[in-house]
Amino acid sequence: MRTRGTLRLATRGSALARRQASLVRDALEERRYEVELVTVDTTGDQIRDELIHRLGKTGAFVRELDERVLEGDLDAAVHSMKDMPTEQPEELVTAAVPERGRPGDALITPDGTTLEELPAGATVGTSSLRRRAQLLSERPDLEVEPLRGNVDTRIEKLLAPALQEEHQERTEADKERKGNTGNDDFDPEYDRTTDEWFDDLSELEKGALGREVETAYDAIVLAQAGLERSGLAHYVDYQELPTSTFVPAPGQGALAVTAPDGETARDIQTAIDHPRSRVETTVERTILAELGGGCIAPVGIYAVVQGEYVHATVSVFDRDGEESVTGSRDLPIETHAEAAREFARDLADRGAAALIEEAREDAEGDGDESVSEEDKPEGK
């Protein structure tokens, strides 16, 4: 029954994007709105063979959704906040920031190995400039290789080599078992046949068996919120990376609902906005905007409301994690936006601006026009 009016929300078509949009839909429906999710196929989703920072358009997964909203086709759009450019069209507002999910990163390995336990020279997959720099800062011996795709795609790429090797071994064992029928002294290596083993695999593992292996990863790094929202956290072994060292991307774990400035935006804010999450992400995005790093530099920014203050932590690296400018500060919550700008200016004076400019020159030299570290098909 229509009770508060139907809202048409734009979302990307990936599994993760639709799960996240569903969280917003459910929250609105609890406030007696009728909600329709409308899938928008973005240019960024169609480009699947390029690294994130080579897509060539800042906010490749955001702008096209917002354009549909501004054209009046849809009422609002649901985004991963970390994908959003710091500059928005004047007529568009962030109508709501629902309660934030886990903000940190997760290191996933096939067998539960931690970052500290990875062998020297281990290959870790990520296409995030920030994660690459942070990994190399902690473990300069690692080989960090590009990794893109939906969350399930990335995990399948991680699991593929070991599963395919085991499949081959089991297939050979099946042949040997058949050749030794009636031999009482034969001791098979595996108790079950390959078909029996395959039937017990998860859909994720079955998908990994069909993957073409181009790079054998020992570990990969993903946003923990994306891993959990994808419903895959229970199927893999992972380590939560500390936010004090692996400072998250600004807005990581948070969703944002954008809408034209007006009554609809105000209604959405009243219904589902989470004030604490809005303050924390406002601080993070304000610092990012003031630093001017966008997505061309490895920048981590994380803010947490603590009583009357917002504790903000920032780390800015060069691309190889060899140089960094880091800092933390308690910002008065009543003036959090201006205090965040002042903190950013201090960091810039301490060398953050120089690192960001160096990263910008590197990007221009590479012919890159970088976009958000998380701009990628995530159906992740």
UniProtKB/TrEMBL annotation:
One of its GO terms (biological process) is heme biosynthetic process. Residues 280-328 form the Porphobilinogen deaminase C-terminal domain. Residues 164-179 have a biased composition (Basic and acidic residues). SUPFAM superfamilies: Periplasmic binding protein-like II, Porphobilinogen deaminase (hydroxymethylbilane synthase), C-terminal domain. It is an enzyme of class 2 (transferase). Pfam families: Porphobil_deam (PF01379), Porphobil_deamC (PF03900). Residues 7-159, 214-262 form the Porphobilinogen deaminase N-terminal domain. Residues 359-372 have a biased composition (Acidic residues). Keywords: Porphyrin biosynthesis, Transferase. The keyword Ion transport does not apply. Its EC number is 2.5.1.61. GO terms for molecular function: hydroxymethylbilane synthase activity. Its cofactor is dipyrromethane. Residues 160-193, 352-380 are annotated as: Disordered. InterPro entries: HemC, Porphobilin_deaminase_cofac_BS, Porphobilin_deaminase_N, Porphobilinogen_deaminase_C, Porphobilinogen_deaminase_C_sf. It comes from the Archaea. Belongs to the HMBS family. This is Hydroxymethylbilane synthase. It comes from Natrinema salsiterrestre. The gene is hemC.
